[in-house]
Design brief:
- The chain is an all-alpha fold.
- The protein contains eight helices and no strands.
- Helix 1 runs parallel beside helix 4, helix 3 packs antiparallel against helix 4 and helix 6 crosses helix 7.
- The longest helix is centred in the middle third of the chain and has 15 residues.
- It starts with a helix and ends with a helix.
């Protein structure tokens, strides 16, 4: 899971085409599911990958992540006892909040 999440994060950085392909091939739902793993490092890597997909001006990527989970798993990260998970959760929520449709 760690290697997969880090690979997705690397693929998503700087390429809207790669981000679109990641979403099209169904990688968002498994990444969101991985944010609930007991291993905190795996959770952080999954959020890193999700944030890589969400970063940028594309509304499609942000809406796609939002539609998969309605933010519940990501909000749960902010309630974690792990400080790094809290920071990661805040980071992805902030990235998604750049989209007006998600904020409303």
């Amino acid at each position: 899971e760690r290697c997969a999440a880090l690979s997705i994060a690397a693929l998503s950085l700087g390429s809207i085409k790669n981000k679109t392909e990641i979403m099209k091939h169904g990688f968002i739902a498994p990444l969101i599911s991985t944010t609930t793993y007991p291993d905190k490092n795996i959770q952080r890597y999954a959020v890193l990958a999700l944030n890589g997909v969400a970063l940028g001006e594309s509304t499609e990527t942000k809406i796609g992540i939002y539609k998969e989970d309605q933010l519940s798993s990501l909000i749960a990260l902010v309630k974690s006892e792990d400080v790094e998970c809290i920071h990661s959760g805040i980071y992805i929520l902030g990235t998604l909040a750049e989209n007006m449709d998600i904020r409303n």
